[in-house]
Sequence to fold (414 residues):
Amino acid sequence: MKKLFDFFQKKVFNIEPGLERITDALCELGNPHKNFKSILIAGTNGKGSTSAYLESLFRHSGFKTGLFTSPHLIEENERWQINRQNITQEKLEKYIDKLLPVIQKYQLTYFEACTLLAFQYFWDEKVDIAVVEVGLGGRWDSTNVLYPDVSVITNVSYDHMHLLGDTLDKIAFEKTGITRPDRPAVIGRNQKQIINWLLKRNIKEFYVKDKDFQVFEKNHNLFDYHFKDLLIKDVQLSMIGKRQIENSATALTSFLVFCEKNSIKVEKETIKKALKNTFWQGRMQILSENPLIIVDGSHNEEGLQKSFEELKEIFKVKKIITVYSFLKDKDIEKMYRIIKENSDYTIATKINVSRGMTKEDFHALGEKNFVESWKEALDQVKNHLNYESLIFITGSLYLVGEVLDGWNSFSKQA
Fold:
């Protein structure tokens, strides 16, 4: 089977800021990205879940949707979806054959090539709306060639600091680069760094959680929602964790703003159904009830801290056993400290990407308990389980992807 990443070999993770390459490549294709409406989503955490909620809201309301997200967890085809269905292998290969000469001519990076394919695919399929997740940052991300109908910024915290800057103000500058002065923006967390940059960028219309729209939490996945003159009571989510209340409320506000601008009537019951039916793999996902095993793609300091807080609040367990791995370019010392402080037992493992931590890297960090695969790790932790235990697999979306990919075969043998 042909995949796009096959043509990049070890250059999959190349990051070369700038919009000139993708702009020129899109121009050669006739600028497909200018032929559909779009919502662009940036932020440090919650982009994928927010994108999933938004797509569901549009699809349940009768729109034909395009969804572009990254990274993929199990198969590359996940990155490009129409009405929440992955691109077929046959279509993917067709697009690779068609676009490869353009990709090579303009020396696109892997993510730029993914973006090019997404926009051509969405135009060919005549989507009504494309929900697009920023890859990294915002200002120089290839997705920022769009002129989105609504720009969304979930939040800012510390991640990719070697590229985005070492302060929240610098990171907010990069993230707010996806906003447009004449288009509305929705902000998922009331952070002064984001607001300051919106004002400096002359963004005339923006809506901020807890200021312009409110949620009233009833438990970890049930809440009331209020925006302008709309009140929706008892919004139920299937995804667990209070972060999903924040993500879904941000998505809902973005949807409502879009509908208001386009004179589209909304239905409360449709909204509630869309949010309840939303699922996003690898985010506080329960793999097994006995023993209790949860996977979560938290891959930075804030995400990990909140994950542990939610585990303790929701599951009331006495013992947390953490299986984890990191990418080398993360703030691994802080992440390691959070895992150690919140776990009763830890075991590190390897992920099969070039940026993954090795046994030697973990030993240097202070973690002496290392095995070569997550399967070995789960076999080892069996000896530490009791009825009050929870196994938590986290630290990298790539690790979560490997677990999800191999879980069915592993669980049958276990």
Notes: The chain has a mean pLDDT of 94.
